[in-house]
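User: Please write out a complete single-protein record containing the residue sequence and its fold in token form, without commentary.

AI:
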Amino acid sequence: MARTRSPLLVLFLTVFIDMVGFGIIIPVLPLYAEGFHASPVAIGWLTGIYSGMQIIFTPVLGKLSDRFGRRPVLMLSLAGTALGFVLMGLAHSLLLLFVARIISGITGGNISIPQAYIADVTTPETRSKWMGMIGAAFGLGFTFGPMLGGVMSRVSYSAPFFVAALLAAGNVILLYFILPESLSKEHRAKPHEDASLFEVFRHGTGWLFGTVVATYFFLVAGFTIMTTFFALFTERRFGYDAHANGYLFGFIGIVTVIVQGGLIGRLVRIFGERALARAGLFVTALSLALLPVCSNLTWLLVACLGLSLGSGFASPPLNGLASQLVDQSWQGRALGVLQSAGSTARLLGPLLGGWLLMFDLHKPLSQYGRTPFFAASLLCGIGGVLAFCLQKPAADRAPENIPVGSAV
């Protein structure tokens, strides 16, 4: 049994380290960019351009992992991530910071690869549970990353970027020595199967897969508006610096870990993926609506609790449903398309949020942040409505072969 589970545990650690590196910059980047005289719109672009690159390259990386295996593509992407973080730390102008974010975005769209790895080595019945474990690794990274970023910001605003680069480089070494390949050669995509990524929708039973993708898009778009402008919001409304924001993001991450790491498998068995996704989207929408009307730390923590519960309930079931709708040799491409939709949301969300935040600049501080956060709430509400159209496939598609053993 230890041999069966060890690859997933290594993958958990890999995603955790990756997300610590990503999370380090969350409370710092908006304030770092302000040092280069960036406006809210420019900060939105700076956040969004990273995801703009992922729109293109996340499905490409997923496709390459279907062709060449999960392990080498994941190592290559993490090496590029390390380079991008180094350039961010060395940036002496807003232009160079944009260049660094573009490089990081090109190589950072690797989340579909761990998800495809999970699909390689699990059964459809346990897939949402293990997607939740990957979500828990995200949550742990989201807990310790922003907290570490807040602490390192006391040294300088560039210090967190160099720490993130070291973590990404160390992750490459960890993968090289410990993580086995999950996709056997007989299940890899052949050169003559180099079809358009839009073919995923045909392999993914058309509108069923498309509904999952659209629902995920609205969830991520709303949530990303919050993460992009949360530090600016709390700085203006409550006087919190990057250090304090790091602890707030850490609180969100801790709750997410509890939900996705310890509860999601049980909740899916009791309520099913579709009901859980619907509940998560509406809880997220309500929490986003509450956020801008918070008047003290207690209510701010209540809103943060709802955000972490909502996203924790919704995301793993959506990933699990998407993976159940395609064949094994299409897992990387399908989950790449799903994450590309998420990247599109992470591009458009900050741009929309930055534009809407401009309307609040000349309003009283008590109204700062209302326009973008209410819009984010509406987006998640639309996703919640779409979630009522979610369906599971008529018959679960079990993998033809489990290369490194079942996770159960």
Notes: Residues 2-179+201-389 form a domain with the Growth Hormone; Chain: A; fold (CATH 1.20.1250.20). The chain has 15 helices and no strands. The radius of gyration is 20 Å.
